[in-house]
## 1
Amino acid sequence: MSKLVECVPNFSEGRRPEVVRAIVAAGEKCGVKILDWTMDGDHNRSVVTFAGEPEAVLEAALAMIREAAARINMEEHRGAHPRIGAADVVPFIPIGGVTMAECVALARRLGERVARELEIPVYLYEEAATRPERRNLADVRRGEYEGLKEEISRPERRPDFGPARMHPTAGAVVIGARKPLIAFNVNLGTDNMAVARAIARALRAKDGGLTFVKALGVELKDRHQVQVSMNLVDYERTPIYRALELVRLEAARYGVPVVGTEIVGLVPLDALLGSLEYYLQSESFSRDQVLEVKLNA
Amino acid sequence: MSKLVECVPNFSEGRRPEVVRAIVAAGEKCGVKILDWTMDGDHNRSVVTFAGEPEAVLEAALAMIREAAARINMEEHRGAHPRIGAADVVPFIPIGGVTMAECVALARRLGERVARELEIPVYLYEEAATRPERRNLADVRRGEYEGLKEEISRPERRPDFGPARMHPTAGAVVIGARKPLIAFNVNLGTDNMAVARAIARALRAKDGGLTFVKALGVELKDRHQVQVSMNLVDYERTPIYRALELVRLEAARYGVPVVGTEIVGLVPLDALLGSLEYYLQSESFSRDQVLEVKLNA
């Protein structure tokens, strides 16, 4: 099996499609496969998903950061989503034949080159973080572009690579490595937001729930329903089925049924097979038994 | 998506690995991908699974039948499994970008060439059958090699292609087209064979169960358990989850739990995703959301 790394960079541009297209094109030239890209006008932000061999992914990420830096001016950027730079967050994700350690090394090499070649300050986060307080993206991004500009020269906010001052237009960038994230939403047969919030609290790690679950209650106005919206940040240790069945268990306390679920975006095959094996009570199942996997082997 | 046909020929040789290897090699030369091959000494039979573009699969099947005919003598063949020829059964299965009608056409073209080039009588079965009474493989194979040899000249047993006499060493061959078959076993927390048999009857089509399920009770002596062993012959219309949950429902009547299940051999991704969508109550899920599917697209 060849080595495969996924990269999901977020850019601070969600209103000018020609800019996002230019960023995507810059990456695509480096021999990676663009899997998806989306824009959000309110957030004024775009998310690109691509994958390829580690070296190609490194070059593509660098090319996209360079393109974003040339076309986005953070001094003029407004949007609903927290951000500190034109290329805001760039995570590497091990997908196949690659360890997390290799993705961490890739993140550090990219950080070093972004600092040297583009003179943009770089923060390392999640698995690539150099200090525990930088693991969490929200902590790195505290104060956003405007606030970090004031604080960047303070010792505790100095970047891991590059100058201790913001790039005049591109700001700063957060680079790191993490596991695949699954966006999983469970819709409930009630319009009572208190129920959705209570279940979200019961599910999420920080309030005593499952270790690798982030959860929020969300209102689905058109449907007159509420939703428990989750991010599963380590599906190997907190699988989809466990999150769903725990939502069901908590909802039963209020006499509320699960009416449906959705997985948003891409999901690794192993995450799906793992949950199916639970429901089927499989004693022995290997992904090599999937006809299409065997065909592509 | 390119056109993809699977072929799962069965050969009357399960004791001489060099013969099976030669048969496999003859097919492999035609540019198909060998996915699996297994031998069974008691049955004196082997099963090969391969896939590829339709024309390559046709040539590979022909080459394997030719090789089997040259190396297997049905006059000397003994084994526990019913059979009528050296190459005994050759089904084509639509896997991707191919209709059942195309697989039926492929089966007929192969039948015509086997008859003409190898002088082996050919029967068409399942979706490729020319008469309703030949759809079912067991009916075509009635009397086995020895019995068919006597009856082949009778009008009702005349082959679809080729001479109305057995090939002196290779016998006859059954060629056809069918949907993918899933071998799915459910293990029960009891050693009571009466329970396994009763559940198998409740599940299988011919006794009032699910239309596309064949089921048998099987004893698992080493485990002191029994099993409902099923073939799901149309997973789109009778999916895995429905068979499993119906076994569970029937077993509950006897206070017997499902202790585990197994899928034997290869299974199409869509069959797995379809059942997972049931358990997750998915409102919208597309196979394009599977990262690996998207990557290979």
## 2
Amino acid sequence: MNRNDVTEKIIAAKVSKGITWEEVARRIGQSKEWTTALCLGQMTANAEQARALGEVFGLGEEEQKWLKVVPYKGSLPTEVPTDPLIYRWYEIVNVYGSTIKELIHEEFGDGIMSAIDFSMDITREPDPKGDRVKVVLSGKFLPYKTY
Amino acid sequence: MNRNDVTEKIIAAKVSKGITWEEVARRIGQSKEWTTALCLGQMTANAEQARALGEVFGLGEEEQKWLKVVPYKGSLPTEVPTDPLIYRWYEIVNVYGSTIKELIHEEFGDGIMSAIDFSMDITREPDPKGDRVKVVLSGKFLPYKTY
Amino acid sequence: MNRNDVTEKIIAAKVSKGITWEEVARRIGQSKEWTTALCLGQMTANAEQARALGEVFGLGEEEQKWLKVVPYKGSLPTEVPTDPLIYRWYEIVNVYGSTIKELIHEEFGDGIMSAIDFSMDITREPDPKGDRVKVVLSGKFLPYKTY
Amino acid sequence: MNRNDVTEKIIAAKVSKGITWEEVARRIGQSKEWTTALCLGQMTANAEQARALGEVFGLGEEEQKWLKVVPYKGSLPTEVPTDPLIYRWYEIVNVYGSTIKELIHEEFGDGIMSAIDFSMDITREPDPKGDRVKVVLSGKFLPYKTY
Amino acid sequence: MNRNDVTEKIIAAKVSKGITWEEVARRIGQSKEWTTALCLGQMTANAEQARALGEVFGLGEEEQKWLKVVPYKGSLPTEVPTDPLIYRWYEIVNVYGSTIKELIHEEFGDGIMSAIDFSMDITREPDPKGDRVKVVLSGKFLPYKTY
Amino acid sequence: MNRNDVTEKIIAAKVSKGITWEEVARRIGQSKEWTTALCLGQMTANAEQARALGEVFGLGEEEQKWLKVVPYKGSLPTEVPTDPLIYRWYEIVNVYGSTIKELIHEEFGDGIMSAIDFSMDITREPDPKGDRVKVVLSGKFLPYKTY
Amino acid sequence: MNRNDVTEKIIAAKVSKGITWEEVARRIGQSKEWTTALCLGQMTANAEQARALGEVFGLGEEEQKWLKVVPYKGSLPTEVPTDPLIYRWYEIVNVYGSTIKELIHEEFGDGIMSAIDFSMDITREPDPKGDRVKVVLSGKFLPYKTY
Amino acid sequence: MNRNDVTEKIIAAKVSKGITWEEVARRIGQSKEWTTALCLGQMTANAEQARALGEVFGLGEEEQKWLKVVPYKGSLPTEVPTDPLIYRWYEIVNVYGSTIKELIHEEFGDGIMSAIDFSMDITREPDPKGDRVKVVLSGKFLPYKTY
Amino acid sequence: MNRNDVTEKIIAAKVSKGITWEEVARRIGQSKEWTTALCLGQMTANAEQARALGEVFGLGEEEQKWLKVVPYKGSLPTEVPTDPLIYRWYEIVNVYGSTIKELIHEEFGDGIMSAIDFSMDITREPDPKGDRVKVVLSGKFLPYKTY
Amino acid sequence: MNRNDVTEKIIAAKVSKGITWEEVARRIGQSKEWTTALCLGQMTANAEQARALGEVFGLGEEEQKWLKVVPYKGSLPTEVPTDPLIYRWYEIVNVYGSTIKELIHEEFGDGIMSAIDFSMDITREPDPKGDRVKVVLSGKFLPYKTY
């Protein structure tokens, strides 16, 4: 057994039971973004969260242990994602990547926006011309240090 | 001459003159995000914007014409970006890609978040533990249609 | 179980029963193009369509549930397809890609032809020198917006 | 000098003179699709077409000779195109590739749709919900032969 | 079950029974080249050929059905083949590719040599300095059409 | 200066002068296949051949010297060729590669068909249904030796 | 002019003048590790450092400006480095990567060792069996946060 | 059974039993770095170490034999690692690779830092601004020899 | 069953029985180099050798048959090998490849060193500064022929 | 100027002057293998060797300085070499790589054959059936150490 087996079991259980990620998140007491990432094998649960997920998805003790092990991260099967929804994000990085770089450096100087001390919030933005997906990303700025 | 030559000339002129993208944006009358993408060869100017950029960066008439031609987009030299700041975004797509997909589908059903009918806003979020980069992405949801 | 298992079961059942995609489409009440894409794991069924497919291919309840889950799309095993029929399409993109880009921009300006708000129609075009495959693609034009 | 130099000169001349591909096509007496592909270095001109293009774009005799040489075809700089408009076509091949294959085989048997004995027609399809790009592809069906 | 399973079963049965491809071809009434390609999952059998192969290799009815389904073609596991015999062919394409292109265009003009309306004949060419492999390839010339 | 410069000069001179490869071959006294490969930078000339090519294409002494240096071989810009004519050969290797391997081993045992002790002959095969390209490849069989 | 031109000029000037990186670092008042990375186009200088480098390497005002622009980072020409010294580091990541991951997680929990808030120190470690290279890496631990 | 099976069994046993690598190392009498690499299938055990690991993880005799066989090394599933922690190391090689090369050559001349006669030590470096990961690498310098 | 299964069974049996390749070679009556390559699925056995290997490793009749089938060659899982020992050989090809090419051409003219009519001998070369691996490669020179 | 420029100048001078690598090696007083690698930009000269090469090839003082700088090594333009002579070596690594690994480990235990403390000797081996290329490689065995 490995973390991947647990992830697959969670996904299959979710389809079978018809629960939403939002409900799962409420059970865990975390945001739906972090909770989904945890369930998809990208984050690490503490004891309580593992137990809660175990109840939600019917996971045994061994499976819950795996949720507490730091996983080998990376959730996409190819370097350039083939799924259209995920590809659009890759396209944003490709088309706007140099723009993002320029503007963060203009505001903050040399460094990066952390993808670790990081949070994400995905919501529906109602719009008469068609609703929009609004995503707020917040990452700590980390300056390169000289030494 | 091609669009790439114009982009390189703009970048060199910006370094030489020491202007910021924010100032350029004010001259164009658009957001700093869209303006920077335009200057970096990813967007298309109208006649007035091309003229304004010509003044800011000292571009000739031929060069301004190129700004009005739709460019071949894509601003990164490799499939997986090597620059740490841009890579963090690729990492977000890699680690959170499946999460983003799940949550948008949970809220909207099958479809994508547009990268065309799309806007981006990058700001500084003051934080006592270290300021953060806040990025708001807004893209129209486009449902797959059946036929 | 996952969507891929359901796709493989559908394909095997189709070979075994000897039905055509056109017949399947009639049962679903959709075009043969969209129906085939659904059966091959690229589209998402509603409840009625899932039930209809369940009957056609002998799928259990759990399998029908998977048809209603948005799939991870992408139906080709390699970046450059090896199958000659599919490769010809990749070749069209490669040889005519810049032509398509120029002509759409000439007519519509900067933007894209949607692959989401999109339909396809494949028919036989009788021709004394040898029948032809006629494919009509229709995608909404989406302009890049300035902001 | 090589064909690529001629292509670049044609593109630069087109930007400078502000002519459309449609006008160029009228001068050549061919469709705008084939003419654009010719100008972008993918097709081969006959003597008359080369002369006409020479006039339109101000090409010398040596340059016209290159238009009559069969080019090394392929108009994209990367295996997976980065430009969003062209990528959407790659995505169509990726998402619908297996569907296209199934339906052509269902109608015609084993073989391919030719990308050589092939024509393409791109037009605007007015639509109250937003105009659409309509592309008609027509390729001769070539059956695999047994021997 | 899929075509690949049938191919593997055929190969294993061939090793076990010790028959040659030439014998199989005689049973099918086709050339040894086409027959081998069929057995290796690259071509499509008609009803009679499927039945004959079923007898030769002990295939059940379901397996015979798969032989009549057009396969996803491509018989090599990597882009650049690692097997020395097959690599030599890739090398011929690499070293002589531009030569082949020049000479076919010199004789026929712009177009291709079909790999679909195509046959191949492999024979032993006795030679006192060491026997040679003689391969005759014959493919219909398909001219690019203007439109 | 390097061999590549000489190759480019030869190609440009050929376009400019309008000579055919067949005529060049007659001047060299070798087959058109080998001569073209030589001119395209894949083979090595002896003193006499270099002199003859020098006359045909107007090459100086330094350039003729380069024709006598063994070149770094490989005439294609990408692993999978994008040019349709050359791609068809790659496709033949991909679709028929395992067939070629099986049949050569069936006839000769373990070993390869040499791509060095090798010759190629490309001719037009008249056919009422459309002329065909006939290519005869002849390579010495080299058995793996045990030791 | 771009940063790459400045980097190449610095490298050529260093060879020509025969200075060591250690001497350059003393002039800048930073460690030799950070200074070398700056000169090789990976870090960003402040005004004083740019002026000092200008003196050391004879750089003009425009060139000094480029040193103050945040560069597009990444100093290797291929994904897997071909240079043996640098490859050994890639090999360490490949062979010990999972070990490093396990031990950092065992000590710190889920998170990463920063490559931004990071310093490196390279020294000679005398050893009778052959001197050793000692490299000390120090990176802040950044925990994944839950939200 | 192969080494990979043994590695997977060790990892699963470790999760199940909740032991740390440090405890395992104490049982083996080696550093935690080398021991972890051994358990993850990168190093080779002697008889005693294999027996000790057998006890710790409940491995049978056959499994212990595999620990004594030199493994095919390399612990990462992709050329560019997707896991953020391991990627940071790849980034260090990418950003600082040329710096490391310059400084080792400046001190030692042409040669490499061995990744075989090599040791690694990972410790926690307490820091009021947030603890740091300190990694000491020590590799013998191997000079290129002339001959 | 296929050749790969037989290879894996041989490797597992070798670990289990603790025999050396040298002993296996003696049983086959061939060099240890060729014998190992045979056992690792790269060469083809004759009837007697297959029988001998069957005895050594406890292979059944079906498995022995597979040893007599010419295998699909290539023993490495990635284009650039990750295993340090094998990578060193790839590095030799990378660093010395152009040198090897120059010197063989200087001595022999245009052609190659055969990897088919080829043998290899690996021995220990005692050396007071540390024993060395001595590898002697011998391959027939094959000249390119003109035609 | 950089090392690559010097390498190209050396190669062009060698063609122009018609000297052999063996003569160059005599002038340097080193083996022809090491000398060729030096001239092709893979090794580092001392002062005397640089001066000698300067005389042989007519290199100026600045160019000689570059010969004394440790180069970024790697002499091949692609991961899998396209040149047939060099490819045969890649094929040897591919086909015999696992064999080489097994036999070195059988004789020496875990470790590698050094590609740094390494020498190579290429000679002609006369043979009535066709002369052979004999290559002797000698590399120090470096054991993995435990710690």
## 3
Amino acid sequence: MTPPAPPPLRAPADFSVNQMTVKQLPLPELVTACADLGIRGVGLWREPVQEYGIEAAAKLVRGAGLAVTTLCRGGFLTAHDPAERARALADNRAAIDEAATLGTDTLVLVSGGLPAGDQDRDLPAARERVADALADLAPYAADRAVRLAIEPLHPMYAADRCVVSTLTQALDLAERFPADQVGVCADTYHIWWDDQAPTTLTHATTTGRLHALQLADWTTPLPHGALTGRGQLGDGTIDFPHWRTLARSAGYTGPIEVELFNDTLWARDGREVLTETVRRYVAHAC
Amino acid sequence: MTPPAPPPLRAPADFSVNQMTVKQLPLPELVTACADLGIRGVGLWREPVQEYGIEAAAKLVRGAGLAVTTLCRGGFLTAHDPAERARALADNRAAIDEAATLGTDTLVLVSGGLPAGDQDRDLPAARERVADALADLAPYAADRAVRLAIEPLHPMYAADRCVVSTLTQALDLAERFPADQVGVCADTYHIWWDDQAPTTLTHATTTGRLHALQLADWTTPLPHGALTGRGQLGDGTIDFPHWRTLARSAGYTGPIEVELFNDTLWARDGREVLTETVRRYVAHAC
């Protein structure tokens, strides 16, 4: 007698996969793989969606019954130069339009680093330029039912990618605006080390400003450039149930997105990685 | 006619060089190079000093009129295992003895990361184990006129090297003990991104707990492993006059140590690097 086949793997209802986790999968294959695994949510990235066509992507994803949990990403709002600032604002308005077309209510923003090449070393001033840009963009987004989610990146990116380094800084920025316009995106990879982040996460949630929650694990050694070493869940040092419980206890009812940037995972079969990610989510984050 | 020779380069009186900056120089050559440049302070590391002999090193440095501004480093106090903890405490007592022999009043402590191999992901508990160890070590150090200086390392080292990631965490730990026993070591490389660090640095200084101030610049991209990319002053994004002025305004009268871990600098002639470091200090940190 052969043993009965195990039941097919089904993703938990709150699981969402960020497109970057399996960027080797073209959008139609990602959508099919999600259907096969019972995945109900997907976080999309602008570049592959633009390549596929915004309207076509919206139709494809909607047709499969997939919710678009976030669009990644707008931001990069720290330039001094007026022409460069104008270009950045226009690009962010385009991102907001794309989010609306895709049917997601959340656009993730990465602030940008110190302006390159002009010896500017003033982080507080750069953060204020981000605030100025948010004042411009938030009403435009609100008119299209899109919320801006400021994502703090790990302090190791403060110079060249994101001057907003802690969840507390991100929330302080968000709180200058209405909660249904500007909130935060909390990613465990960026905040796990921070003893202030748990309190801030709770506060953000109870005040309606936790607009997105993302997971990736912290693994060492960091790769050259520190960009593509976000670990598969369970491979590193982050206590995911701790973060999940914090958010859920405070009333967060939204999806939880797994977003991995990882050269080793990208080199593997995308469907296999997606299946593994669902299994790891069940084993390490539920 | 030949133009008159420029006056010889003399280091500012508050400049100290950490031995690691020019680790290619054997201790006697370092001492000679310091004398030639008018450098009055040096931060030493345990391993090269042990290799040379503690007593011999003390005699050599004292004979040259060099002040030992710090000894690096004790710490690594996060183990669970009783035998491993006992070994770590014994090693730290040895480090305190070495500091006393070398005539420095400051032993820099790096806390240690999460214990390897046991799936422990609890950062707050690891920090408490550091506090427990400090309670053991601080009186021993005080009896030998040595102060323990807790050094927060950049959050990118939280998992595998140092669970104390911010100056505020370090000061919170220190404040459980008398100020003349336990304080902090502030290194710009580790704290420059942190919007809370300026206030904490001022508070630490006015309460007599800034036991050491170190400089290194932040440069990108980070190298693989993120350990040996500390930039030469002026090559990166850190505003040194800002940090120097904060400390001096709050009453810090101690030396300022330049501590670079940098493969490129280590591959060059050590005397040339030391001369460059003094020039950069004058140009970028005064």
## 4
Amino acid sequence: MSNKYTSNLHIEKAKTSKIKDVDFDNLNFGRTFTDHMFICDYVNGEWQQPKIIPYQAMSMDPSARVFHYGQAVFEGMKAYKDDDGGVFLFRPKENFNRINKSCARLAMPEFPENYFFEGLTTLLNLDKDWIQPGIGNSLYLRPFAIATDSAIAAAPSDSYRFMIICSPAKAYYKGTVKVLIAEEFSRSANGGVGFAKAAGNYAAQFYPTSLAQKKGYQQVIWTDADTHTFLEEAGTMNVFFRINDTLITAPISDRILDGVTRKSLIQLAKDNNIECEVRPIKVSEIVEASKNGTLKEIFGAGTAAVISPIEGFEYKETYYELPEIGDHSYSSILKNNMLNIQHNLAEDKNGWRFEVK
Amino acid sequence: MSNKYTSNLHIEKAKTSKIKDVDFDNLNFGRTFTDHMFICDYVNGEWQQPKIIPYQAMSMDPSARVFHYGQAVFEGMKAYKDDDGGVFLFRPKENFNRINKSCARLAMPEFPENYFFEGLTTLLNLDKDWIQPGIGNSLYLRPFAIATDSAIAAAPSDSYRFMIICSPAKAYYKGTVKVLIAEEFSRSANGGVGFAKAAGNYAAQFYPTSLAQKKGYQQVIWTDADTHTFLEEAGTMNVFFRINDTLITAPISDRILDGVTRKSLIQLAKDNNIECEVRPIKVSEIVEASKNGTLKEIFGAGTAAVISPIEGFEYKETYYELPEIGDHSYSSILKNNMLNIQHNLAEDKNGWRFEVK
């Protein structure tokens, strides 16, 4: 826990709740927000008093640096509720550590740990009615930080805002997805910011992804910018490949996000006696494995989707379909294990659950 | 000129001007804004009525996609005033075309040409008292576009805002600068967004630049992310090298911004009978040229600074100092020629000046 920052959270409760207007069976991901939000400003070299206030729009100067120079980072987390009303987070310290790594890479000040956890747990207690129990339901949590200084010089901001907003969610992806393997466009450079959850990393993927979508693919699997021969990640998901009975996923690097779901699945594979190799993986290896029938599964892994099984992929104008495996797939085994841990329905031998009290 | 968009600019004038509070001799770049701003929203697949209104803060939802996914692009332009009160832009069509290229790469809608030029010229007529005559004075213009949709799904926004804000400026860089040549960090990837004026490109440079600044360098010259052997650009400036009597600058690519100042200087060099080669240039070539005394000049070129002469550079822990050349330097010749054209003090044989009427 951080030290110089004393706990001094200000709370202003919403007068009425919007929850009665929400149709929890028909949620559009990321468009509905709870009654409260967490907000903390950085001014004059110090994080100011953190606050929880009713969710509301905020006033921004048109010259705020976030609009011009993209100093913005975020995290994605989820809160789960069990049938007894207990509220749980999943490895929140990982997200806390990562947003500060992202901040450091974007020349933004790191956020104090006690502010983060006090803000997050207080917010969840206030808005816990928004968390629906049951597998597939969650409250998606979006901590983020933006540069607020009113100045259009191309330099780091003097002031920042750290916020947490919350949006009730069902599963992010419906069903399976088909992916296009990148041959021309790239997501990140060696020595760049690909490992960070930097806002600009996402906008950069939208256009190539829209081209893939026109061809019938929902996502792009990015390859290394130098040679387009090594598989990296899918932009909002890390990617796992199963060849015969071995899972393979790319090592993290300065180009690849250190996904919390990714690292949890590597451990869960071990817990389930599934061999998992973390090593560079060539596109040619999965093409060959698909041709000779040893490529059994590909799936994406991320907080929003947990696991997204991939139905097939296109590479160099050829489509490769994955076999149907069904309930015995590694993706099903690992996803169920993961969801059961997250929802307090399975033993948590790695100590990942964090009960919100 | 665009067609489907009829001119329908709404103007709301500021009741009073802030100009009397401005000390034009002591301007801090990008912190003072004129009385008005241009604003146009994109909703339901259409650009709505463009408006000029008093400069003011705006209301933004915390979930606005620009904060989370970095869909934001901008331009930098300047307006100049001659001693007769004439107001001039410099190749504004280049900036207009480029912001639309940036928009396309970030999956943002292109902005109509007649909206842009009507908005810009009307804004300049309203705020022309903010443009001071004289070399070195200008009104810096910042067209930009941001994603405004209130939704945190990682996908292109449905709504956008295009704005132009204006800030009176003196010369951007004071004196000469020393630069560090990048050996580890990178600005952009092949197949990425380095050629676009995407907000996220700038935030990504701040941390490596801050490390350079700690070593006494004001800027970084970026190299290719693959090998760090080819010189690219300086992030806010393209870069020119003079070896013997020849100027050399890197070709534009998907990693390097197609700078308006850069392309104008290439033409001005020709107009001044200075040989200018556009070709890949290795770090080793300028190191060698520095050692054997043939490296005469390095300078940055961009709208903000016009030309920034570089005093020396560090590469692999060795500092290389450039010789002092003085008024006969190519940077002086070209900068003076450029400023004189911009300020309506020299013949404009290339037809670059655009008088605002």
